[in-house]
């Protein structure tokens, strides 16, 4: 099965890390993977997105225009990419940063309160892993345990003390998405 996912938001929200972690997890599981980042020259506050494709078969091109899933961490990203999700796809968004939710009725929509959940874990830096956990509970692209292994490769060694809190964030994201998901209309 092939999963084509777009992660989008502002620089500093962990957008590229979400995609890279998912890509590494796919590699660990022996899948074919592409990770294509796109970001502005700003370090924080500029736009950032990445396309991740995880597949059981060879990937013909990393450049695609329609996605199976969109993970939007801010309003501009949702506004820009909502129409790029295939029918029967998934749109997940950070409910704390998005004022105008998606309007599509042909996709599964999940509003994920990442800020609220990150505050419960006393660490706002894990918002992106809460979202990844939520995504994996809806779309089993890779195993969550593999994502934890991938984090050890993605995070610089100076941040390895955060592996445990990131694992907790993944698990929290998995638990909350059931409450947040709305089925197809």
Summarize the structure in words.
37% of the residues lie in helices and 26% in strands. The chain is α/β, with parallel strands linked by helices and 185 residues long. It has one domain (2-182): Pyruvate-ferredoxin Oxidoreductase, domain 3. It has a seven-stranded mixed sheet, sandwiched between helices. Helix 1 crosses helix 5, helix 3 (114-120) crosses helix 4 (127-138) and helix 5 crosses helix 6 (163-180). The longest helix is centred in the last third of the chain and has 18 residues, at 163-180. The two termini are 24 Å apart. The relative contact order is 0.18.
How would you summarize what this structure contains?
The protein has 185 residues and is α/β, with parallel strands linked by helices. The protein has a single domain (2-182), classed as Pyruvate-ferredoxin oxidoreductase, PFOR, domain III (Pyruvate-ferredoxin Oxidoreductase, domain 3), CATH 3.40.920. It has 6 helices and 7 strands, in the order βαβββαββααααβ.
């Amino acid at each position: 099965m092939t999963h084509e996912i777009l992660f989008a938001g502002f620089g500093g929200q962990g957008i590229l890390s979400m995609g890279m972690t998912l890509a590494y997890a796919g590699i660990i599981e022996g899948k074919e993977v592409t990770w294509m980042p796109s970001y502005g020259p700003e370090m924080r506050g500029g736009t950032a997105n990445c396309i991740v494709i995880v597949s059981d078969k060879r990937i013909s091109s990393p450049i695609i225009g329609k996605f199976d899933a969109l993970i939007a961490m801010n309003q501009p990203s949702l506004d820009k990419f909502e129409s790029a999700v295939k029918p029967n796809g998934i749109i997940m968004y950070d409910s704390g940063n998005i004022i105008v939710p998606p309007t599509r009725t042909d996709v599964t929509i999940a509003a994920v309160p990442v800020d609220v959940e990150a505050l419960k874990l006393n660490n706002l830096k894990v918002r992106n892993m809460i979202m990844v956990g939520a995504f994996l509970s809806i779309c089993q692209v890779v195993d969550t345990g593999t994502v934890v292994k991938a984090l050890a490769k993605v995070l610089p060694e100076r941040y390895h003390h955060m592996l445990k809190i990131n694992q907790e964030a993944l698990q929290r994201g998995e638990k909350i998405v059931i409450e947040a998901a709305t089925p197809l209309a």
